[in-house]
Every structure is written in structure tokens, then in C-alpha cells.
């Protein structure tokens, strides 16, 4: 088969050259100068990371709004209202959520090594931890002595934790879907794309929580 | 002799058995072909352009006389709000997305976008979102009234909790934003991962660089607007207090988030237009694009600098002086990479033999008008001057030189330039030229008049004004009506030529991009063979390209 070739010239700067100096993981992420169209996994991961980048900006816009409002208000809490406080309950919730990142990653690695049962077990553990966090947040919400419309503290607290909670919920739903799919014969092969993406998403949700936790609970007036 | 055997696709007539051409129905179906989606975007956004233009005509009719006698004040507010919103979010931005959808895979030698299904979904979010926005004209209280930027607290002064124009406005804008973010993910992945073998970054056409830079801005800045709109929606309908000054909230935060997106949005709109100039000018000047690399990097540079200038829209929003100074300087910095571009366009056509076909007329017209709009832009970036003319017609004149006289003109250049590729037919040159002159002259009449009006102190967003302003307003309105009429020869030309125009060859302009080596229109998978790229773009220096022979036997 004759391939169409157009003119002859070398363009000196090529991405491949830069790639020689990049660490391994970046090399896996960044494509070379073309011919990668068939690498569906890599392409998909790239797209997903780009998506997470846009998500983090939405979070950032909420967080910066919160910070700006906090810094310009001395009367943050309406009279008689107690802000969100750092109870052991919240601590445990946080620890559970953050440590789930260290469960889901081995799960994904197991899948890459084709250890399906180990994957299912660790994956299920992650689901349990995520669910625990969601239920815990619900309980915490119901016990707070301010509501969504109680001043800026209510507006910011519920919107920030609620938006994050929505992401946790999405993560759990993704995880359940992937777990169910792992029982469909032939659906799961080594390093399933859906599982990789869910893992990335879960890490993202955890990292966001580190920021929210520090701002909402640790930063007290 | 790879060199010779490669390019003789130039003169070859389009293979009329190309099944994709007959089947026009696919343009009305849910397709994942990037070319179909591209055309769908462009056709749909043009409908919105007509609607937005119609609204502008009503505004201009109102402004013919000093009294408010054509529409009542709330409706007038609704008209300029919807006009601005539609023109930005349903005309220029999605049109560029459509054009890029059509061209980027072809230009980088790919068979489709990276995620075809996501691509289709992103498109199909838009028609419902647009209709939703328009539907607010039917509400008892009418559409949103606080202008396309929807500043609180004005935008919050509507009955809370009800479905009102403002609520609908926010929801449709969030939907449009989601669609754009999907698009950005798709474009960036496509450009990074789907390039044909040998298509390195510095062999990409400047149009692709422009799309890449603009989509990077969509990705980084648009989510901030989405965040702001979500908070505004909560303030409006759930009783939160983020932006309510009377309840401790801070409306200026909204302004920051809004302009963090909406200033770069200017470049999301303008960069693809600059990309179009970079494709059309070399092709009709038969010259390589001057300083290709600097232009490519300047594209990215403009995008990056534009992220750090948003406060120049807030010089009068109780902004502290140190911030005003800082952002005045960063704003003026944009002029540097922009100057590189303008210089490159000039140098490209300098002392070359110009072929003044319709795309070239529109490209040269648009590029020239950009110089004017750019100059008034730098003037506005100077804080003291901006404070003087803030919210006057000077500002309106400035941004219409950019959004209409530059970007919309570039869009017309693109439509004519790639029309043969997209439809497999040639348009009529005579009607095209008529369209150009009917656009170019009235556009200048209309939008130039706004500058003296602004300097004399006429405010924007008012339906009645002091009689001393009537002279220039009459001129502006007459120009606008002519401008409105100019779409008629355009539509006639496009529809007529698509149906009955002479068949186009694969490469009627003897241009050098990859899109021209495949058939017109391209087959489902774009290329019979994925090309291997071994040369830089804009290779017009090659004598093979420097004569415009066999130019489709038109006129
Ligand atoms: C057909 C040609 C056009 C005419 C005659 C026209 C005319 C006008 C007029 C009279 C206003 C009202 C100014 C005011 O009351 O503040 C306006 C506002 C505006 N126009 Fe256009 N325009 C045209 C095309 C466009 C295009 C292509 C865009 C693309 C972005 C655009 C974007 C805007 C925006 C953003 C506003 C501000 C709306 C606001 O104040 O909220 N216009 N235009
Ligand atoms: Cu700006």
C-alpha cells in the first residue's frame, strides 16, 4: 500500500525529543508526535485528567469565594450560632475517606495484574468506606445548629460540603458499576479503563477533601 | 520522487460517487462523525446569529429617536441582555467549536475526534439550552434583564423561588458551559493524541494552535464562571447569601469569577479568528506565513497572558489602586504577542500578488478592523481613560469592532474558504463580493458611530437619551439595518451554491493544509490513507504552489 507522503523537510523541535528527558509516568501520559490514535486507554486517561483539571477549577472558585468572604468578615457567625466544629466524629469520617485512597490504589494495581478476586475484595472495601463517609456526613448535617440560609456560614458550609459529597456519591456509584461489571464474563480484562478512571476520580475527591477539611474545620475564627 | 506523486490530488475532480455527499439527511441525525457535527454546530449557531441580529435591529430601531417609543423599558433590558448572551454564547463561541470540529481532525490527519460520542453529546446539549434561553421571552416577567454579565445584586432583584427569566438564563448558561467543557476535553485530547505520524507541534497549522490555546482557556477559565453561576443560582432560588450585599455577601466576588472567564472568553472567540487569518492570508498571497513559529507561540502567549488581566473590567468596582495598576500593565502586555500576529499578517501579504477572492476580502477586512479594535482596547486598558468612558457607547463600539468587524468577518472568511471542502461545491464569487461590501461598509458606519457617542457621554443600556446624541444614533441605526440586510445575499449564496453550485475540486485554492489533500467533501474516515507529514505548514514558497493555475474555471 502506498502511503501519501508530503514533501521533505525536518522540523527540528519534536515532542519525542523532549520526552527523552521526562520522567516515566509523564511519558506514559504525554503522547508522541502522532500515530497514537489506537492507544485508547492512554487517550482516555489523558482526557479524564483534563476533565479533573476543569473540575478542580469549579472547586477552586467555591473555595476562593469562601476564603474571600471569610477574610472580609469579622462577624462571620450570626449571634448564637456555633460554626462547624472539629468533633471526633468528623475526624473519624475524614480518616476513613482519606485512607480509602490507599485501598483503591492496590485494587487497581491488582486488576492490572489480573488478580480479579483481590480486586473485588479491595474495591468492595472502598465502596464501604465511601458509603460510610456519606452516611456520616448526612448525620453531621442533621445535627448542626445552622441551616443553608443561616448567614454566610450556612451558605458556604453546605455548598462546599454538598458539592464535595455529590462527588463522593458519584465516585461510589462509579465503583459499584465497576464492581458489577467485573462479574460479567469477558467484560473485565487486565487494567480495565473504567477502574483506572474511577481510581483517579477517587484520589481527586480525597485531595479536595483535604483542602475543604482544612478550611472548614481547622481554620477557626 | 515522493514529492511529485504526492500532490497531484490538486486538480483531480471530486469523485461524484462519494456516498457521503448525497446523504444530506445525516445533518439532521445524531451522528458521531466530526464533520457532520461540525456542520450541525455551524448551521445551528447561524440561526442564533440571525435571532441575535434581529434583536439588535429592534434595539437600533428603539435608538433612532431619543424617546423610548418602540419597546418598553423592561423589554429593552431583555433585548440587550439576550442579544449579548446569544451573540457570545450561541453564536461566536459555538460556531468556532463547530468550525474546529470540522477542521481540526482533518488538519492534523486524524480520522475523527478523540471521543466521538462525547462530541455528539456536547453538541446536542446546545439546541435545548438555546431554546430554553429563548423560551424566557414567553414568561410573564420576560427574559433576564441585567445584561449578559448578570451582575448581582441587580440580577437577584426578581421574585425569589419562581421560575423567572434570570433563573432560566442561569440554567441555560450552565448547560452551555458544560457543553463547552466537554468540547475542550475533546479538542485537547484530539490535538495531543490523534496527530498523524510526523505531525509535530511545529508542523501544525496556526488554526490548530489557535484552537488548542482557546480550548485551554475554556478548560481553565470556564469552570470559574460555572462555579459563579451555580452560586448565583443558589442565591436566587435557595436563599443563600454569597453575593447579597445587604446580607453580608459580596457581589464583587461574582465580578471576579465572571471576568476570570469572560475576559479570556474574548480570546476564546478571537484566537480562532486569528487562526483563520493565518490560513487564508498565506493561501491568497501565495506566501508562507511570515514567522510561523513566533505566530504559533504568540497564540499560546496571548492565551496565557489573558488569564491574568480580568480586573481591567473592574476598574470602577471599588478596586484598590495597586490592583488597578497591576492589571493595567498586564492588560497592555497582551498587545505584545498580539502585535507579533498583526505584524506577521502584514508581512505575509507584503509585496505579494494578492488574489482577492471573497475569503481573502473578508480576512483582510477583518484583520484590518482588528487593528482599530485593538487600539481602542489598549486605550481602555489605561485605567484613567477607562474610568472616563466606562459604560458608555465607546466600550460598545470597541467590542463590536472586535466581535463583529473582526471575529464575525473572520467567520465569514472561513465559511467561504472551506465551503468547497465542506459541500463539494463552489460558491458564487459575485454574490460573495456583494456580501463582503454590504458587510464591511455598514459595519464600519454602525460601529464607528458608537465611539464619538461614547466620548460625548452617551451611556449604554438605555432606551431613551438626550436629544444631542440623535445624529450619530441615526447613522448607527441606518448602518445596522443595512448590515442586517447583508445576510440576505449571504444566505442566498450559501443555500443556492450548496444545491446548484459547480462541483469543487479537492484543492481549489492550491492551499497546503492536510484538509486539502482529501476529497471534497471528505469521506467518512477523512483520508483513504493517513498521511505521513514531512514538511512544515504554509509551504507556499515552493514554486509548485506559487501559481494559482487551474483555479476551478470560475468566472
Ligand atoms: C448585527 C450586528 C450587531 C449590531 C447592530 C449590534 C448592536 C448592539 C447594540 C445596539 C447593543 C446595545 C448596547 C447597549 O444598550 O448597551 C449591543 C450590545 C451587545 N452586543 Fe451587539 N450588535 C451586533 C452584533 C454583535 C455580535 C456579533 C456580538 C458578538 C459577541 C455582539 C455582542 C454584544 C454584547 C456582548 C452586547 C452587550 C450586551 C449587554 O450590554 O449586556 N453584538 N449590540
Ligand atoms: Cu477584558
TrEMBL record, chain A:
* Any one GO biological process: aerobic electron transport chain
In terms of superkingdom, the source organism counts as: Bacteria
User: What keywords are assigned to this protein?
Assistant: Cell membrane, Membrane, Transmembrane, Transmembrane helix
Q: What is this protein called?
A: Heme-copper oxidase subunit III
The species is Halotia branconii CENA392
**Domain Heme-copper oxidase subunit III family profile residue range list:** 46-221
Q: Which residues cross the membrane?
A: 45-69, 89-107, 119-137, 157-180, 200-219
Q: How does it sit in the membrane?
A: Multi-pass membrane protein
Asked whether the keyword Transmembrane is assigned, the reply is yes
* GO terms assigned for molecular function: cytochrome-c oxidase activity
PROSITE patterns under this entry?
A: COX3
InterPro entries assigned? Cyt_c/ubiquinol_Oxase_su3, Cyt_c_oxidase-like_su3, Cyt_c_oxidase_su3-like_sf, Cyt_c_oxidase_su3_a-hlx
User: Which one Pfam family would you cite for this protein?
Assistant: COX3
Q: Where in the cell is it found?
A: Cell membrane
What GO cellular component term, any one, is given? plasma membrane
Q: What family name appears in the similarity comment?
A: Belongs to the cytochrome c oxidase subunit 3 family.
UniProtKB/TrEMBL annotation, chain B:
| The keyword Transmembrane belongs to this UniProt entry's keyword annotation | yes
State the InterPro entries in the record.
Cyt_c_oxase-like_su1_dom, Cyt_c_oxase-like_su1_sf, Cyt_C_Oxase_1, Cyt_c_Oxase_su1_BS
Q: Name one GO molecular function term.
A: heme binding
User: Alphabetically, which GO biological process terms does the record hold?
Assistant: aerobic respiration; electron transport coupled proton transport; respiratory electron transport chain
At the top level, the lineage of the source is: Bacteria
* Localization, UniProt: Membrane
Entries under PANTHER family matching the protein? CYTOCHROME C OXIDASE SUBUNIT 1
Regarding protein family, the annotation reads: Belongs to the heme-copper respiratory oxidase family.
Put simply, this protein is called: Cbb3-type cytochrome c oxidase subunit I
Amino acid at each position: 500500500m502506498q502511503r501519501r507522503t508530503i514533501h521533505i523537510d525536518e522540523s527540528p523541535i519534536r515532542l519525542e525529543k523532549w520526552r527523552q528527558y521526562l520522567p516515566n509516568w509523564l511519558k506514559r501520559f504525554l503522547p508522541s508526535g502522532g500515530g497514537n490514535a489506537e492507544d485508547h486507554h492512554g487517550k482516555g486517561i489523558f482526557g479524564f485528567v483534563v476533565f479533573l483539571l476543569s473540575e478542580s477549577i469549579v472547586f477552586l472558585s467555591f473555595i476562593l469565594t469562601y476564603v474571600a468572604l471569610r477574610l472580609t468578615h469579622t462577624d462571620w457567625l450570626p449571634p448564637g450560632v456555633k460554626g462547624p466544629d472539629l468533633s471526633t466524629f468528623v475526624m473519624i469520617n475524614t480518616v476513613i475517606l482519606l485512607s480509602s485512597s490507599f485501598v483503591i490504589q492496590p485494587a487497581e494495581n491488582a486488576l492490572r495484574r489480573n488478580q480479579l478476586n483481590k480486586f473485588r475484595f479491595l474495591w468492595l472495601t472502598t465502596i464501604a468506606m465511601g458509603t460510610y463517609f456519606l452516611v456520616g456526613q448526612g448525620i453531621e448535617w442533621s445535627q448542626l445548629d445552622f441551616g443553608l440560609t443561616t448567614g454566610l456560614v450556612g451558605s458556604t458550609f453546605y455548598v462546599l460540603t454538598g458539592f464535595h459529597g455529590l462527588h463522593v456519591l458519584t465516585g461510589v456509584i462509579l465503583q459499584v458499576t465497576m464492581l458489577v461489571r467485573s462479574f460479567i464474563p469477558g467484560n473485565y480484562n487486565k487494567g480495565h479503563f473504567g477502574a483506572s478512571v474511577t481510581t483517579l476520580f477517587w484520589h481527586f475527591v480525597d485531595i479536595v477533601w483535604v483542602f475543604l477539611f482544612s478550611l472548614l474545620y481547622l481554620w477557626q475564627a | 520522487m515522493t514529492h511529485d506523486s504526492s500532490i497531484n490530488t490538486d486538480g483531480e475532480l471530486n469523485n461524484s460517487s462519494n456516498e457521503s455527499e448525497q446523504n444530506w439527511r445525516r445533518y439532521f441525525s445524531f451522528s458521531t462523525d466530526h464533520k457532520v457535527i461540525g456542520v450541525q454546530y455551524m448551521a445551528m449557531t447561524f440561526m442564533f446569529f440571525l435571532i441575535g441580529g434581529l434583536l439588535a435591529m429592534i434595539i437600533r430601531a428603539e435608538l433612532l429617536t431619543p424617546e423610548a417609543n418602540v419597546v418598553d423599558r423592561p423589554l429593552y433590558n431583555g433585548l440587550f441582555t439576550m442579544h449579548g448572551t446569544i451573540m457570545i454564547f450561541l453564536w461566536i463561541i459555538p460556531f468556532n467549536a463547530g468550525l474546529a470540529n470540522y477542521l481540526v481532525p482533518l488538519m492534523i490527519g486524524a480520522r475523527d475526534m478523540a471521543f466521538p460520542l462525547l462530541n455528539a453529546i456536547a453538541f446536542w446539549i446546545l439546541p435545548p439550552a438555546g431554546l430554553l434561553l429563548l423560551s424566557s421571552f414567553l414568561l410573564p416577567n420576560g427574559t433576564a434583564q441585567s445584561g449578559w454579565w448578570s451582575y448581582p445584586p441587580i440580577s437577584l432583584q426578581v421574585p425569589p423561588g419562581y421560575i423567572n427569566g434570570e433563573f432560566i438564563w442561569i440554567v441555560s448558561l450552565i448547560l452551555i458551559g458544560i457543553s463547552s467543557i466537554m468540547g475542550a476535553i475533546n479538542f485537547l485530547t484530539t490535538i495531543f493524541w490523534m496527530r498523524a505520524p510526523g505531525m509535530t507541534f511545529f508542523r501544525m497549522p496556526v488554526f490548530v494552535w489557535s484552537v488548542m490555546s482557546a480550548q485551554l482557556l475554556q478548560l481553565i477559565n470556564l469552570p470559574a464562571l460555572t462555579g459563579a453561576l451555580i452560586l448565583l443560582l443558589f442565591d436566587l432560588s435557595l436563599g443563600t447569601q454569597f453575593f447579597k450585599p445587604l446580607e453580608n455577601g459580596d457581589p464583587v466576588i461574582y465580578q471576579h469569577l465572571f471576568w476570570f472567564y469572560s475576559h479570556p472568553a474574548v480570546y476564546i472567540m478571537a484566537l480562532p479568528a486569528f487562526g483563520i487569518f493565518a490560513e487564508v492570508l498565506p493561501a491568497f498571497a501565495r506566501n508562507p506565513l511570515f514567522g510561523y513559529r513566533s505566530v504559533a507561540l504568540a497564540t499560546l502567549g496571548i492565551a496565557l497572558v489573558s488569564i491574568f488581566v480580568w480586573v481591567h473590567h473592574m476598574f470602577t468596582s471599588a478596586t484598590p489602586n495597586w490592583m488597578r495598576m497591576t492589571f493595567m500593565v498586564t492588560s497592555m502586555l497582551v498587545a505584545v504577542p498580539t502585535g507579533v500576529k498583526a505584524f506577521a499578517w502584514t508581512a505575509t501579504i507584503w509585496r505579494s500578488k494578492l488574489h482577492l477572492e471573497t475569503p481573502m476580502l473578508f480576512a483582510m477586512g477583518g484583520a484590518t478592523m482588528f487593528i482599530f479594535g485593538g487600539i481602542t482596547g489598549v486605550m481602555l486598558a489605561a485605567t484613567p481613560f477607562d474610568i472616563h468612558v466606562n459604560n458608555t457607547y465607546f466600550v460598545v463600539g470597541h467590542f463590536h469592532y472586535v466581535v463583529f468587524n473582526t471575529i464575525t468577518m473572520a467567520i465569514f472568511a472561513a465559511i467561504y474558504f472551506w465551503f468547497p471542502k465542506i459541500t463539494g461545491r463552489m460558491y458564487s464569487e459575485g454574490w460573495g463580493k456583494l456580501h463582503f461590501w454590504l458587510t464591511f461598509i455598514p459595519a464600519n458606519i454602525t460601529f464607528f458611530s458608537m465611539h464619538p457617542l461614547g466620548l460625548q457621554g452617551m451611556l449604554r443600556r438605555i432606551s431613551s437619551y438626550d436629544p444631542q446624541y440623535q445624529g450619530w444614533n441615526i447613522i448607527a441605526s441606518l448602518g445596522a439595518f443595512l448590515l442586517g440586510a447583508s445576510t440576505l445575499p449571504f444566505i442566498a449564496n450559501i443555500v443556492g451554491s450548496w444545491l446548484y453550485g459547480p462541483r469543487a475540486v479537492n484543492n481549489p485554492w492550491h492551499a497546503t493544509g492536510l484538509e486539502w489533500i482529501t476529497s471534497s467533501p471528505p469521506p467518512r474516515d477523512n483520508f483513504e490513507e493517513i498521511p505521513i507529514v514531512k514538511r512544515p505548514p504554509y509551504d507556499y514558497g515552493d514554486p509548485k504552489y506559487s501559481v494559482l493555475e487551474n483555479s476551478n474555471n470560475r468566472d
